Amino acid sequence: NAGVMQNPRHLVRRRGQEARLRCSPMKGHSHVYWYRQLPEEGLKFMVYLQKENIIDESGMPKERFSAEFPKEGPSILRIQQVVRGDSAAYFCASSSPGTLAYEQYFGPGTRLTVT
Amino acid sequence: SQKIEQNSEALNIQEGKTATLTCNYTNYSPAYLQWYRQDPGRGPVFLLLIRENEKEKRKERLKVTFDTTLKQSLFHITASQPADSATYLCALDSGGSARQLTFGSGTQLTVLP
Questions:
Q1: Using the beta-carbon criterion (under 8 Å), do B99 and A108 form an inter-chain contact?
Q2: Pairwise CB contact (< 8 Å): B43 & A103
Q3: Rounded distance, CA B70 to CA A26, Å?
Q4: Across the interface, do A31 and B95 touch by the CB < 8 Å criterion?
Q5: Which of A72, B24, B43, B54 is least buried, going by the fewest C-beta atoms within 10 A?
Q6: What is the CB-side half-sphere exposure of residue A99 using CA atoms within 13 A?
Q7: In what helix (H) or strand (E) does residue B59 lie, and over which residues does it extend?
């Protein structure tokens, strides 16, 4: 059973470009979460999605950031017009839809560098 | 505001000893608490979950306690090994439909051979 997959693992963008980060959850998981880890800081929640629905985006910056989890295909975290402060590791996690299954399984992360 | 503190940024112990890591929280009423392990350059790995009505949970050499009165969780690794060296993260969830995790900043554990 493959784990959570993220790609690309490393992404370099110039200021002003767009970054697209992809996440495929574990088989059977329909809940996806995105977290950001800034250098020397802890993991911060960004958004929680289920198929075709954004459940909680309270951690998302108001501008330039968006996320989706379509019926088919991976979840996408999109950052428009990137700035140097967006440089960070972005982790995706997934969990089972079971009502008592709260543990989350993380992918290897995408390390975004904005030059 | 809600706050999670993991008391030591770094902890060094001798191989074979028991490592004890602390997680304290304020202004929070978590339904459950989780511990994760993170190695450099990798994503966190789930270790244990303990619910608000549980006092203690064990898994092999790992033990977690949860005191909702003290608002504290202790994470123990017995018979520690150099391979246990990593950063350990405490995470809280308010339960229900929220599901988002709030993480502490982590404790970097080094087990010396």
A1: no
A2: no
A3: 36
A4: no
A5: A72
A6: 1
A7: strand B56-59
Residues 6+ positions from A62 with CB-CB distance below 8 Å: none
Q: How many CB pairs under 8 A join A and B?
A: 59
pLDDT tens-place string over residues B3-21: 889 977 789 999 999 999 9
**pLDDT in the model for residue A96:** 84
pLDDT tier for residue A13 given thresholds of 50, 70 and 90: very high
C-alpha A102/C-alpha A91 separation (Å) is 17
What pLDDT score does B113 carry?
93
What's the whole-number average pLDDT of chain B? 90
Q: Tell me what pLDDT residue B40 has.
A: 92
Contact B72, B50 (CB under 8 A): no
Over 70: is that where the pLDDT of A101 sits? no
Of all residues in chain B, what percent carry a pLDDT higher than 90? 70
Chain B residues 4-63 with a CB less than 8 Å from chain A: 32, 34, 36, 41-46, 49
> What does the alpha-carbon distance between residue A66 and residue B29 come to, in Å, rounded to a whole number?
30
Q: State how far Cα A59 lies from the chain centre.
A: 12
Contact B100, A45 (CB under 8 A): yes
* Dihedral class, residue B83 (left if φ above 0, else alpha if ψ from -120 to 50, else beta): alpha
Please, are residues A106 and A7 in contact by the beta-carbon 8 Å criterion? Answer: no
